[in-house]
């Protein structure tokens, strides 16, 4: 076993790996993301947030057509990072009321991102235009977990309203 620690006192809140890549991403309670090399077992870059007072709750990467990393935070903002230079290139506002983003899911090889939040909403974003291209709802309370099957064009969600939702893309 190898232990990889971003800093000595930061709580790790989310992790994402892509099977075709040796790089993974860690989301942390300090608002930052950390890229790690799974072969070396160490942090290789820090993606600094512009708001270190909000915890990252979900992370994702898109490595096929782009070199982007994403973080979804308690403040309702999804930050899109350029993994080559570590800079934030865009911020998507999932919730104007600052409801937490609980899950993000990039479509690998495409320019689409799905986001889920405690506002009970699902949003699909076009990463080229930076616009929300579809918004879905149906839960009476926040979405706390979600999975996207891009091949089947299906989203499955779990909510604090004690229901599971099935949504067609």
From TrEMBL:
- Keyword Nucleotide-binding belongs to the record: no
Q: Which domain of life is it from?
A: Eukaryota
Q: Which UniProt keywords apply?
A: Repeat, WD repeat
Q: Which SMART domains match?
A: WD40 (SM00320)
Q: Name one Pfam family in it.
A: WD40
Residue ranges of WD repeats: 113-135, 136-169
Cite the SUPFAM superfamilies for this sequence.
Answer: WD40 repeat-like
PANTHER family reported for this sequence: ANGIO-ASSOCIATED MIGRATORY CELL PROTEIN, MITOCHONDRIAL DIVISION PROTEIN 1-RELATED
The entry's protein name is WD domain containing protein
The organism of origin for this protein: Entamoeba histolytica
High-level lineage: Eukaryota, Amoebozoa, Evosea, Archamoebae, Mastigamoebida
